[in-house]
Amino acid sequence: MKSSINPLNKFPLFLFIGLLSLIGNAQEVEWLSWDQAVERAQTDENPKKMFIDVYTDWCGWCKKMDKDTFQHPDVAAYMASTFYMVKLDGEGKEPIEFRGQTYNFVPSGRKGYHEFAAALMQGRLSYPTTIFLDEQMNMLSPVPGYQKPEPFLNIARYFGDNIYLEKDWQTYSGQSK
């Protein structure tokens, strides 16, 4: 007697189980507004460092970094455990308060820019730019440009694991001669 079980009938079950395992292992990035991150930094018993992704709606590399880098499981897990993660629109219109100063949107050219984004990027309006701040919200470094997951994680660990306190970037990254 020939078996009437078609192996293709099992395919949807395998697909479903595979998707469940991916969902179970996925680390979702929790993006915060600037105000939410500041509040957490001021109220958490053990505040984290802050990471700011400065982007614009029209920036293709920003979208690629969101999809490929920030959603990478290793990157997402490390970032969630080490940083408050902030999304900051470099052309946002809402005022931002920081250290007694109010930063606003400045109309310029076709779009304009936000003064806070410009201050964080040290006047170099380049998107995407990622910013690392310490637990007291002091600037560690802006990092301009698209970063693939592995190099980005290397940069994030440099700041997140406090390696920057002991080694300069060239030594840490193996670029010193």
Question: What distinguishing features does this structure have?
Answer:
single chain; about 180 residues; Glutaredoxin; 5-stranded mixed beta sheet; about 40% helix; about 20% strand
Nutshell version of this structure?
The protein is an alpha/beta fold and 177 residues long. The protein has seven helices and nine strands.
How would you explain this protein's 3D organization?
There is one protein chain. The protein is built from 7 helices and 9 strands, in the order αβαβααβββββαββαα. By secondary structure, the protein is an alpha/beta fold. It has a single domain, classed as Glutaredoxin. The longest helix has 15 residues.
Number of E-state strands: 9
Mean pLDDT equals 87
| Classification by helices and strands | alpha/beta
Provide the low-confidence segments as ranges. 11-25
How many structural domains?
1
Helix content: 25-40%
- CA radius of gyration: 21 Å
SSE blueprint:
Blueprint: H1 11-25, E1 31-32, H2 34-43, E2 49-55, H3 60-70, H4 73-82, E3 83-89, E4 96-98, E5 101-103, E6 105-106, E7 113-114, H5 115-120, E8 129-133, E9 139-144, H6 149-160, H7 169-173
Parallel strand pairs: 1-3, 2-3
Antiparallel strand pairs: 2-8, 4-5, 6-7, 8-9
Helix pairs in contact: 4-6
